[in-house]
From TrEMBL:
All residue ranges annotated as the AprE-like long alpha-helical hairpin domain in the record: 180-360
This protein's record includes keyword Nucleotidyltransferase: no
Biased composition (Basic and acidic residues): 335-348
Matching InterPro entries: HH_AprE-like, Poly_export, Poly_export_N, Soluble_ligand-bd
Upper lineage: Bacteria, Pseudomonadati, Pseudomonadota, Alphaproteobacteria, Hyphomicrobiales
Organism name: Mesorhizobium zhangyense
Keyword Lipid metabolism annotated: no
GO MF assignments: polysaccharide transmembrane transporter activity
Region annotation Disordered: where it falls in the sequence: 329-348, 375-415
Segments forming domain Polysaccharide export protein N-terminal: 41-128
Coiled coil stretches, renumbered: 237-278
Domain Soluble ligand binding: 134-169
Keywords of the record: Coiled coil, Signal
Name of the molecule in the record: Sugar ABC transporter substrate-binding protein
Length: 428
């Protein structure tokens, strides 16, 4: 009996000998499933900090059992606490602040292996489920904390807080213009991401190269989206190929086993026929006492043993054929599920694009309305002049907070505090 050294929810045990022979293919597929779908915006060298939320999944391949065990008691969502740690069952407090998800993944596997004395190190998949928020203070409509999103700039963050706060009603038009422009930029960025995603889905559905819209090819952000979606398509295609190849290798192994069993059955039947002929030839002699009965009994026992072996081999051959049928169906299901997923994602993406296009049109109208009442409201944007607003970011670097002046196009990082101040409007 194998001693169990940690909690488990279930174990997938491969009992068939051919499955054991192909376990290396199964291990690869299991690892691919665990590593599935990291956040598109997550960077490999992103350093974690307080309030970052992680999604952790732990599985273990047990060589001795030929089984994958899911550590469900550890898998789940965790938040980096004020001390910069995450608290995990069995492990306790683990430092996370300043580390990458890859480092956390390695540390979890090593801690569990050491604690329970495991032969195989568990595999931990750690992905960034939610960035730590950003904070806005000063002359904004609604100060407070807001969720961070990739490609967030000072202007986009300002729009999340409702834009600038102006006590002077005479500056309402300019405020409305800034709010509308900020929301417009955020929606355009979101739509560009959906356009890139739609192009990738169309490519996957029709099995052809990705044709990205020209509007994405002409901007830096668009080129990054193109790169991300292209890499994502390649990763998904590789995963499907590996799964189908693993399935094909399994079927080949089963076919080889069936062929071997059929040859053995033919040999056993030939041997059994020889025993029967010999038994028939000495049967009459035994009745007349010319041959000892022990010889007859020995031949009958040999025939009976051969019949049992043939029956076992025929049963094993039938089981292998059933496994081939199941593996063939699994391969068809993989492709069918992939096609269904692509179709559903494409339908959802089309609906999201349509909704964003309507909102973008609304903010275009609001910008045009603000400019029709006060053409000077957009002067900073059209003439390249700095708006009468000061921006600064308070950022934590190595445990020390520092304040740096920025402009509205400066990228924001998770955990930043954005300070906004309205400068006096110079007299004409």
């Amino acid at each position: 009996m194998t001693r169990q050294t940690q909690p488990e929810r279930h174990a997938l045990t491969i009992s068939h000998p051919v499955w054991r022979a192909g376990r290396r293919f199964f291990c690869f597929s299991a690892a691919a499933i665990v590593m599935l779908l990291p956040m598109a915006a997550q960077s490999a060298d992103y350093q974690l900090g307080t309030m970052d939320k992680l999604r952790i999944r732990v599985v273990e391949w047990r060589t001795a059992e030929g089984a994958v065990r899911d550590w469900s008691s550890i898998s789940g969502d965790y938040t980096v606490g004020p001390a910069g740690n995450i608290s995990l069952p069995f492990i306790g407090e683990m430092p996370a602040s300043g580390k990458t998800t890859t480092e956390i993944s390695t540390a979890i596997g090593e801690e569990l292996q050491q604690k329970f004395g495991l032969l195989d190190k568990p595999d931990a998949s750690v992905e960034l489920a939610e960035f730590r928020p950003v904070f806005l203070s000063g002359d904004v409509e609604t100060p407070g904390q807001y969720p961070f999103a990739p490609n967030l700039t000072v202007l986009k963050a300002l729009s999340l807080a409702g834009g600038l706060h102006r006590a002077d009603s005479g500056q309402r038009i300019e405020r409305d213009f800034i709010n509308a422009r900020g929301n417009y930029d955020v929606l355009v960025s979101q739509r560009n991401g959906l356009l890139a995603r739609r192009a990738r889905l169309i490519s996957e559905a029709e099995d052809k190269d990705i044709e990205f819209p020209k509007e994405l090819q002409d901007s830096a952000d668009g080129k990054k989206l193109i790169t991300d979606e292209t890499n994502f398509k390649l990763a998904r295609a590789k995963k499907l190929r590996d799964q189908l190849q693993s399935n094909e290798d399994l079927r080949n192994l089963l076919q080889s086993e069936i062929a071997s069993l059929e040859k053995k059955i033919v040999t056993q039947n030939r041997q059994m026929e020889l025993y029967r002929k010999e038994l028939d030839s000495i049967g009459n002699l035994a009745d007349r006492g010319l041959v000892v009965n022990s010889r007859v009994l020995s031949l009958e026992q040999s025939v009976s043993d051969l019949q049992g072996k043939v029956l076992d081999m025929e049963t094993a051959s039938l089981r292998a054929k059933q496994d081939i049928s199941k593996a063939t169906q699994d391969a068809a299901d993989l492709q069918s599920d992939r096609d269904t997923e692509i179709a559903q994602d494409r339908q959802s993406t089309e609906a999201d694009i349509e909704g964003l296009s309507l909102k973008i049109g609304m903010y275009k109208d609001l910008i045009a309305e603000a400019l029709s009442h006060d053409p000077a409201a957009g002067r900073s944007s059209s003439a390249g002049e700095a708006p009468p607003v000061s921006y600064s970011i308070v950022r934590d670097n190595d445990g020390k907070a520092s304040e740096i002046p920025v402009d509205e196009n400066t990228p924001v990082q998770p955990g930043d505090v954005i300070k906004v101040g309205i400068l006096p409007i110079p007299a004409n």
